[in-house]
Structure formats: C-alpha cells, structure tokens
Amino acid sequence: MPIPDTAVAHPTPFVEIPRGEWSQLAPKEHLSLTETEIVQLRGLGDRLDMQEVQEVYLPLSRLLTLYAAGARNLHAETSRFLGERAGRTPFVIGVAGSVAVGKSTVARLLRELTKRWPDTPRVELVTTDGFLYPNAELERRGIMDRKGFPESYDRRSLLRFVSQVKSGATEVRAPYYSHLVYDIVPDAEIVVRQPDVLIVEGLNVLAPPVHGRLALSDLFDFTIYVDAKTKDIEAWYVDRFLALQEEAFASPDSFFHRFASLSRSDAVETATQVWRAINEPNLLENVLPTRSRATLVLKKAADHKVSSVLLRKI
C-alpha cells in the first residue's frame, strides 16, 4: 500500500523516525567528509551541507554496514550449507526518486561514504541513464517525448548488466550517457570490475516485475527512495532549469542550447510546461507508486532537508 504524501498510512510496513532521533544513530567513529568534498558531491540546486551529512547520511551509512555484513554472512552460510566455495558477492544498493529530487546527490554521497567502510573499498556507481535507448531509436519508436518513462529504457540490458556484476563477473561494461548532448555516446563505456558495493541510481529502479519476469529490484540488497511533495519537486525542477540555462545550456554542444537565450519568464514557463507534460506524469504514474517497495524512504521538506526517515520493519 503506497505511503501518502501527508502522513504514514496505518497499518504500515514502515517505522517513521524523526530527524532528531535518526541523527543520534550516527557511528561513533569519524567517517565524515570535508566541506570541499561535499560541495563537489551536491547536485545543482541541492543544499547538502556538513550538518545534513552528519545528521542524516552518517546514520544511513552505519545502517548500510549492518545490512552489508548481514548479506555477507548469509551468503557464506548458504554456501557452506550447499557445500560450495563462497565467492565474494557485491552488496547492491538501489536509489530511486523523481527527477530533481536529489537522488543523484544521495547516490554520489553514499558512494563516498561506503568507500570509507573497512570491508568495502571498491564502490561503483552506475545510473540507469546509460541504458536509455539512443535518441535515434527513441525517435524511430515515436517515444522521444517519453524519455525517462519505463519504455524508453533497454531494461533487458540493464537487468543483464546488474546480474553479471552481482554474479561476480570479472569485468562488466555499460553504455555511457552524456547529459550535455542528452544522448548515449557511441564507443564510450563505463567499466565495472568486481566492486564490493554497486550503487544503481535511476527513476524506475524499484519498478515491480512485469508478467512474472525478474525485476531489477530483485537484485538489490537495500533500496532507498528519495521522497518529497510533488509541488516542492516542481519548484526544484524549475530552479534547476534556470541554473542550467546559465551554465550547461550556454554551451553550443548542449542539446538544450536553444533555451540559453530565453528570458527568465519564458524559461520558467518552458520548464513548467516540460515538468507538467513529462516529468510530473512519469512521477505520478511510474515512480511514486514504487515508493512503498523501498527498504528506506528519505522524506525531504521544501528546503531540501531530510525531515524524517521511514525504515521498513524487519
């Protein structure tokens, strides 16, 4: 049963932990980042700072270490039960949420924090953008205006990629996506080599199985949904569009260069139209309904700060 925007439904599979209580669960040992590292990690328009890292993400990092240790122990005991030699299996984390909600910042931050765990120095982050069909293929299928919707992804290749990493393959390759040109880059790849932890970030990573087939989320050991009210995400999307207009859009190589010269009012109108025609319907139809499938939900307030954490009961 989905979690309503305004209150937790009862009965619920989640326990809600206010930020103040959650912050007390941080590890005793020092795992924090420098201010410079935090600035480099946060996305455009995000407001991640040292306090947010210490009060929200260090406790989350500690929780993830417990889950990772539990997964390793279970794998070892299962191998012993079967009389097999226990190979090392990566701990796979899925991070989901709307466009502009800050999930990419969360994923990048978790990558840096998990690298600091003593047992998991090799951490890889892969976004599902690399598994979007190339623009030419989207145009051929007549779904260019539905880019980001489930049907715009090569889901079979994405599932195969994560399956191979999870099974311990020596080297697995993924396509490379450029946000500047808004397309897959031919002959460019991301190479993943037996990580201790794999983080997979994307809009639809928590989608349920289709017609009884294996779902991507079936391969995850822990999943996070970054949540906020729809009206707040819309405001963040418009703010991000305005910031990009002054930065990335200004490049002649940018797919969105045509928006660089818009007046502020026209830019706000354009961003709002794009949000309401594409991103909001995708959120409401495909992304938000997967929230209740997460292991943990980070609930953000209008100021981008996490106000509470919902953790699935064990």
UniProtKB/TrEMBL annotation:
One of its GO terms (biological process) is coenzyme A biosynthetic process. GO terms for cellular component: cytoplasm. It holds the Pfam family PRK. Residues 92-230 form the Phosphoribulokinase/uridine kinase domain. It is an enzyme of class 2 (transferase). Pathway: Cofactor biosynthesis; coenzyme A biosynthesis; CoA from (R)-pantothenate: step 1/5. It comes from the Bacteria. Its EC number is 2.7.1.33. ATP binds at residues 97-104. It is found in: Cytoplasm. Belongs to the prokaryotic pantothenate kinase family. PANTHER family: URIDINE KINASE. This is Pantothenate kinase. It comes from Curtobacterium flaccumfaciens.
